[in-house]
Amino acid sequence: MIDATTDTRADDDAAASPSILLIDDDLELCDLLREFFAQEGMRLETANDGRRGLGAALDSDRDLVLLDVMMPGLDGFELLRLLRRRSQVPVIMLTARSAKADRLAGLGAGADDYVPKPFDPDELLARVRAVLRRVGRAPQPVAPLDAEGIRLIPTAREVRVGGEVVATTTFEYEILEYLVRAAGRIVSRDELTAALYHRRSTPFDRAIDVHVSRLRKKLGPLGAAVRTVRGAGYLFRSDPEDQAPR
């Protein structure tokens, strides 16, 4: 049986978690920072060019924007000038251009901070937290998720069974957290693939099945809670009856 407060916690966590927008044309960096900030209880969305980034910054209620300077088309300095005509959302500029004149230009255009590339993610996180504290939007701790003897700790991306840590891969943890948050609802392979890999699944794509199979084994008897619904997807449900995974 799932803790009745799980869905409420998920909604509360989403509301409490700061919304951060990263505007950067480096796709690999965007993926790395999205995962890094998720571990810290922060929602990071991305836009990979200046014009889309400006639209995303203006169309949604953001708590903070991380803005790369060197982008094709609309660069970071011009984007910031346009953004400041309509919004005072805090902005931290990211750039490989570390000359004093560039830092002054960014701050003069309305940036709240300026972080040169390459940077240590922990340093960037410290700068982000400092800016969020100044505007009263420091992140709240993400509550653990409890489901019939399985405990997930999102901030540490850790799974515990009976108080013992279960060693999981990144994808195994993400699959389990996704299914626990959707407990009682069938989640299709297409949905999981889109959420984890940010792409569509194919008829020959069995990666999700492999991860689920390994996850079940690691969870031992409690792995029966991760059920396969033939032709539909997966369902997280733990009852006293019918404990064998299908």
UniProtKB/TrEMBL annotation:
This protein's UniProt keywords: Cytoplasm, DNA-binding, Phosphoprotein, Transcription, Transcription regulation, Two-component regulatory system
Principal location listed in the UniProt entry: cytoplasm
Regions recorded as binding DNA: 142-238
Keyword Transcription regulation: yes
Domain Response regulatory: 19-132
InterPro entries: CheY-like_superfamily, OmpR/PhoB-type_DNA-bd, Sig_transdc_resp-reg_C-effctor, Sig_transdc_resp-reg_receiver, WalR-like, WH-like_DNA-bd_sf
Domain of life: Bacteria
Compartments in which it is found: Cytoplasm
Record-annotated OmpR/PhoB-type domain positions: 142-238
Positions of post-translational 4-aspartylphosphate modification: D68
Signal peptide (UniProt feature, chain positions): none
Protein name: Response regulator transcription factor
Organism for this UniProt entry: Paludisphaera mucosa
UniProt lineage: Bacteria, Pseudomonadati, Planctomycetota, Planctomycetia, Isosphaerales
